[in-house]
Specification:
This protein is 38% helix and 16% strand. It is α+β, with helices and mostly antiparallel strands. It folds into two domains: 228 residues, no CATH class; 32 residues. It has a three-stranded antiparallel sheet, with no helix packed on it. It has a three-stranded antiparallel sheet with strand order 3-6-5. A hairpin with a 2-residue loop joins strand 9 and strand 10. The chain is extended, with a radius of gyration of 25 Å. The protein starts with 8 loop residues before the first helix and ends with a helix.
Amino acid sequence: MEEYRVKSNLLHAAIWGGTGCYQWGGYTSADNGKYGRALIEYFAARLFSIYRIPGYEPYYAYESQFGHMCKFGQISKEEFDEAYRDFEELYNFTQKELRKQGLVINGKVTLNRSLRRFETEVILPQLLNDEKYIEYPANIVTSYAHDGKLYEYNSWMSIIREVPVELIIMYNTCLYHPSNVCAYQIHGGESEVWVVEKNVFGYTKLPKECFRYERVPNKDMVDARNKQDEFSYNKVAKCKRGSLCSSTLYHVLPCKRNWLINALVSRQAKKIEKSRQKLRTE
């Protein structure tokens, strides 16, 4: 495969970690502070026009907010724009190369992912409920692989799915891996692929047949059975009135708790009703 060579120092830092002015680990290099991930997801959201609903932002968005401000506030808008154009070129190059190499079948590419605990603890209760489609939390960009390996990184559950090719922003064999970077070698080390999730509520929805597992740890099974009758991600088993909704979430409006406001609203309502009655008799 031909390989795209990243030109922007900022995009280089986001992927592999930086040197000079950009002193942080990249997406593929532990990524302390989540600076690399934040930039990659910012570029992806910008490219796909993804505007997540408040409260459904990527998990690291708030916990790293101050650190992001300290780092990114020192970078000019021109540097961000230059890095974004480089990212856009990487995406377009990857799309062309995947099609040229015959990896796209019916518009899709087969990929796999070994799931982490924050995913399995939401997925398993739905599988036990025999849901036809499973919903689970996802960042704007999620790492997959193309090597077909299951249960990596001490995971007991994996996904095998057909991903629409237009959602793939990076495929490791299409990206030149520079020398003298601390990042783990994605060539021959990890068959890394980055996939975009466009859902504004921040979840991926897949048929249950995509999920593979052989043995469920006892603790995970116990926890999942306890959660079967509760809500699962973005939906509720016993309540159809909304996202992440349960009886404990219903609250009286603030004005209903204040006797003075309540009295004023009631008095105004009576005035309006009297005016309407007067108009009817005239």
